Amino acid sequence: MTVTVDIWTDINCPFCYLGKGRFEAALRGFDRRDDVVVVHHSFELDPTVPADVSGAVEQHIADKYGISAEQVLANERGIAAQAGELGLPYKVGGRDYGSSFDMHRLLHFALSQGKQETLLDALYAGNFAEDAPLFGDRERLVGVAVTAGFDEQAVRGVLDDPEAYAEDVRRDEQQAAALGVSGVPFFVFGGKYGVSGAQPVETFTRALEMASSEQIVTVGADSADTCGPDGCAVPQAD
Amino acid sequence: MTVTVDIWTDINCPFCYLGKGRFEAALRGFDRRDDVVVVHHSFELDPTVPADVSGAVEQHIADKYGISAEQVLANERGIAAQAGELGLPYKVGGRDYGSSFDMHRLLHFALSQGKQETLLDALYAGNFAEDAPLFGDRERLVGVAVTAGFDEQAVRGVLDDPEAYAEDVRRDEQQAAALGVSGVPFFVFGGKYGVSGAQPVETFTRALEMASSEQIVTVGADSADTCGPDGCAVPQAD
C-alpha cells in the first residue's frame, strides 16, 4: 500500500535541509520504503523579497533580528554540527538570501518530469554545501539545474515565463496556510500525520509506521460486484 | 496534499474493468484530481491456472459453476450494458481465460517506467473490448504492450525471465491477503478508506473526499526547529 509524504519546504531554510536528511534516514530504515511516494511543496519563507534583490545572508539576518554577525555565525556553526551528524555537507558563511519563487517554479517543472527530488537535492547542495551564492545569480541557477540533468532550454523556458508553474507554487502556499502551517519544514504522512520541523529521526520513523498501518474503514456497501477465486458475482439476467 | 489510491485488480475480472471506469468518472469530477496518485496492485483471480493453459471463457465458466452457456452469455450482456453506461466498449463472447501472472509482472515493469496506467488500459481493452483472445497468445500480449508504447525488447526481456517482477506480484497478493481482500476490485484511498467492488460512482467520490480531508494529527513534539516568516528558530550557541 502506498504511503505518501507531502513536505512543505523552502530552499533557503536550513532546517528544511536538516529535516529532509532526518526524514531520509528514517526512510532508509523503513522496511516498506519502496511503497513511499514523496512530493515536495512550495513555501517561501519571505515572499516579499523582490526577485532582483539579494545579498549576504549573515548580514541580512543580523540586521533583521538585531543580533551580531558573530552570533549569526555561531548559529550557523550549530546547524553545521547537526548536518554533520547526518553526513550532510554544510558550509558556514557565504550564503546569500533572495526570492525562492523561481526555484519553486522549477521544482514544479521537475515534478512534472518525475525528477523533483533530483532538483531539490541539487538546489540544497548549491545553497548550503557549495561555495557560491545561489540566489543572486540566475546563470548559476540554470547551471545547477543543467548539471542535475535537466534540459537547458526547458529550464530557461520556465525561468523566462513568469507564469510557468506559478499557480502551482501559489496553490501549495495556500494549502499550507489552510493547514495552519506557519513554519517549515512541515511533513504530512498519509494525508493525516503531521510532523512540524526538523524533528529527530525516530519521529519520522513513527509517522511512517502510523501512516502505513491505518485500520481500513469501509466506504459504501460492504459488498458489491467483485470477482474472486470462486468467480464473479455477476448480475443475474432475469 | 497528495491522495493515494491503491487498487487491487485482475485483468480477467470484468468488475475490475467496470470499477476502474466508475472510479475514473469520480476522479474526473474531483476538484483536486491533480493531487491524486493511483497505483495498481496484482491480484490473480485464479493463481492455480498453469501458464500454458487457456480456453474459451464462457465454456470455462459454464463448466466451473454448472450453469448453461446461455446463462453465461446473459451475464456477459448484463456487464456489457453496465460498461455501456460508462462509455466503455465491451465485447460479449469470445474472451479466453488463463494465467494473468505474466501480465501482472509486466504491469510492475510498466510501473517502474511510470506508465502503469497505459499498460493496464491496453490490457483491459485487449481482453474486454477487442475481438481476439489475450491470454492464450504470448505474441499478442507482446503486441498489445508494444502498441501501447513499450519497448519490444524490454517487454520480451521481462516475459523471458520468469522471476522478473515476480516478487512484486507476490508481495501485492500477500498484502491483499493481509487486508482480508478476497475479491477484486479492491480500492484503498489514502491508506485508510476501503471500497470493495465496482461500487457506484458516488461511493468513489465520497472516498476521495474523505481521504483528502483528514484532520491532521501531530506526531512528535508540537514545535521543533523550523524557519518561518520571522526567521529560523536557530539553536542558541551558548
Lateral arrangement of strands in the main beta sheet of chain A: 2-1-5-6
The name of the CATH superfamily of chain A reads Glutaredoxin
Shape of chain A: globular
Assembly classification: homodimer
Largest beta-sheet details of chain A = 4 strands, mixed
Please give the share of residues in helix of chain A. Answer: 40-55%
In the CATH hierarchy, what is the architecture of chain A at level 2? 3-Layer(aba) Sandwich
The largest interface is: A-B, 77 and 76 residues
Q: Give the DSSP E fraction of chain A (strand runs of 2 or more residues).
A: 5-15%
Rg of chain A computed from alpha carbons, rounded to a whole number of angstroms: 21 Å
Q: Outline the low-pLDDT stretches of chain A.
A: none
Total beta strand runs of chain A: 9
Structural class of chain A, by secondary structure, is alpha+beta
Mean pLDDT level of chain A: 93
Number of helices of chain A: 9
Distance between the termini of chain A: 39 Å
CATH class call of chain A? Alpha Beta
SSE string of chain A: EHEEHHEHHHHHEEHEEE
Overall tally of structural domains of chain A? 1
The CATH topology of chain A corresponds to: Glutaredoxin
